[in-house]
Amino acid sequence: MGTARRRYLAILLLGMVTVVGCGENTTGKRYRAERDLWRAQKMERNLGLQLQAGKRPDEKTISGVQSAYERILRADSRPATPAGRDSAHVRSMGIIRAQAERGLIRMDRLRGDSTAVLAHLDRAWRSYPWDPDITLRFAVEQIGALRSLGRSEQAVEVCQEIVSQIPVRRPDGRTRVPVMDAPIWAADLLLEAGRQDEALAELDRAEIYYREVVNENPDDETAALAWVQLGLAATRRGRFDRAVEAVDHARRISGATAIEPRILYILGTLHQESRKDFGAAATVFGEIVERFPEDPLAPEALLRQAASLADAGTPELALGAIDRMEEMFPRDRASVPRARLLAARILVRQGRFPDALSRYRSLMVDFPATDAALGAPLEIAAHYAQSGEAEAARSTLQRAVDDYARMRSEKAGSREAVVAGEMEVVALSRLERWSEAADRLIALTLEYPNQPRNPMRMVEAAAIARDRLNDPAKAAEILDQLAERYSESPLAAKAREEAAALRGR
Amino acid sequence: MGQLKVLLWSWIETTRNLGRGRIWGPFLLLVVIQWAFLLLLTQFHRTILAPVLVPWIRLVVGEGAMGYPVYFAALPTIYNAAGILIDIFFGAWLLGAGFLLFWQADRPADPGTGGIQRARSSYWSLLLARLPLALLIVGLLILLPRLVLGSVADVPGTLVRAIRYGSIVVASALECLFLYAPLAILVERRRPLDAIRRSMSLAAGAPLATFGAVLVPNLIQVPISALFRRSDTIVRNMAPEVVAWLLALSVLLYAVAAFYMAGSGARLFRIRTEGAAR
């Protein structure tokens, strides 16, 4: 082959590759986006490890993760609409973008920047109109964020948009549970805001919606869940018998066999908490344990059965149910500690304190880092105080304070450390060590700056300073800090007013 | 016993050539070509490469393996499929050149005509002589598991391992038959079909030595394939790109194996054709 012919062939080949290569490379784009997402998530995992080790990540690390997520959003910045584009590609890119947006929101949360969280969520939940599940996930997060900032009205609007825009039944027949929950959430938000009439109107709309869902297909799982929601709506109105009727109807729907334990659990809870019919509650919870012992709800049902039996005035049966629970689910770390706590409380009520004490101790030895075990010393001390054994109560509380402080330092950064810190505040308050109690509350807000309960902790600390330490200046200072650090909190404005009033005294 | 002595002698002679840069030339060129192809495979998502590589990769591993990081778990499979093409189009020529350089290494008095150039002038003959072996090995790798397993749903692990190691032995046995073909073309100036016939007759004359010369270097495949069977674990626990780096390392190890195969093959060829070891 001559040199000239070779050259022409090479140019032709290069031209062909260039022409073909200029087409849209959807696989490559998706691959690069997935790669960037994987790297960003890896950076975030490393950041999570720092947090687990009790080390607060610096701003540079958080910004690094944030930039990694932002790069993904920038790389495919065209309007996210399926029009004119391969819809499968748009969907898969949408899922990647949504994950990147969620990463950004997590970083904003880590910073405690609730304004940025809201701004991101507000944009994100309207950005994927062709994917109801992504939209729903963001919308639910948006409701939670708005609720924590006391913006009930906006949260209600999001609930209403969910119901009007997102079909409750997936194409494969499964239920989008948050869509089903949204009307009740809206009513609850209005009730929380004290807007009773609007809440009742919202419940009316919810009932109409649920009946429409039932009418679309009366025999499927979604219809059963709609009946359950009708029951919950009736509960909000105080019509407990009607609620029980609706939930009982739900369990009889032929397509609801897979969710029958869940429906029964709700029915039992209605009897136990709303109607206070403990006998009926114990029967329903017992049915779950007998018929569905393998169901994840079974340990919880058995625990509720024991509590119902105790409330029904049959403590021996309740203790029997607890023993059965230990036999059936010895490894259930969520329910067994609470069962032991319940057994100890029943025994205290029966006047069998030595037996109760051995239950409390076994709880603290076998499950030391659980909420139940952490609360046990406070209950023991309370019993001593009621029995007039002041010194025993005092020494129990003092030991508890030491134990809580040790757990806080050993498990720094964990949920257990936060609970231990809260319990320590209670113990210090009962010991009337008010200054230390207030300091511990403030320290909790500084050690865990993104916890939603922080504004309330600062209010409690201010109350201790004002009422117990007779130090209005310190109380005002704490309230000012609250208003500054949690300016988005519904408590901020009230804190400012209160601080001004304290200074004006 | 005599064949084993000759085989051992051929390895000793080959080891003595390890320090001779000139002989390494074709093997290193093959390494560079394989690395370049590996690099292309890791960059398949680039706009200029995707139209050519994506359909082919999709054919080999399916759409599910086109995402990140799963692509890197599938990279050894993709690379092995590409390796067959590299073997046919570049391996036949460069391994031929390697054989020739070993042949020339034992003849310092002969005029050095350049192994790579001389092999290039016989490129098509070398390719045609290599093609049947490549097709047989591909057939073996696809057919053997199907023949043994049939439609068995739950395959025991021992059977899978037996097939995997059995494939290495059977592929080595096939490769023995073609071992001397490059030298029959380059030294004896035979045509491809005649060269294959000549190679088979030489291999039949010293079956044990020829089989050993092929099988022992091929045993490097055992740890390498064991490592890449866990590529998903590497992706999960380390970094996906580590798989590509390990593949690049395995290319180097295969080059050493090919160096020994060509070195001992050239010596065995000389013994078989000229009758005595110098």
Would you write up a description of this structure?
The complex is a heterodimer of chains A (505) and B (278). In chain A, 77% of the residues lie in helices and 0% in strands. Chain A contains 24 helices and no strands. The model of chain A has no long low-confidence stretch (mean pLDDT 89). In chain B, helix 1 (2-16) packs across helix 13, helix 4 packs across helix 12 and helix 6 packs across helix 9. The radius of gyration of chain B is 20 Å and the shape is globular. The model of chain B has no long low-confidence stretch (mean pLDDT 86). The A-B interface holds A 17-18, 20-23, 25, 27-32, 34-35, 38 and B 44-52, 54, 66-69, 71, 240.
Quick structural summary:
The complex is a heterodimer of chains A (505) and B (278). Chain A is mainly alpha-helical.
List strands and helices in order, with pairings:
The complex is a heterodimer of chains A (505) and B (278).
Chain A: H1 3-21, H2 26-52, H3 59-75, H4 87-111, H5 114-124, H6 132-148, H7 152-165, H8 177-192, H9 196-216, H10 221-236, H11 240-251, H12 260-274, H13 278-291, H14 298-311, H15 315-328, H16 336-349, H17 353-366, H18 371-386, H19 390-410, H20 415-430, H21 434-447, H22 454-468, H23 472-485, H24 491-504
Chain B: H1 2-16, H2 21-42, H3 50-61, H4 70-105, H5 115-121, H6 123-149, H7 157-178, H8 181-186, H9 192-205, H10 207-218, H11 221-228, H12 231-237, H13 241-274
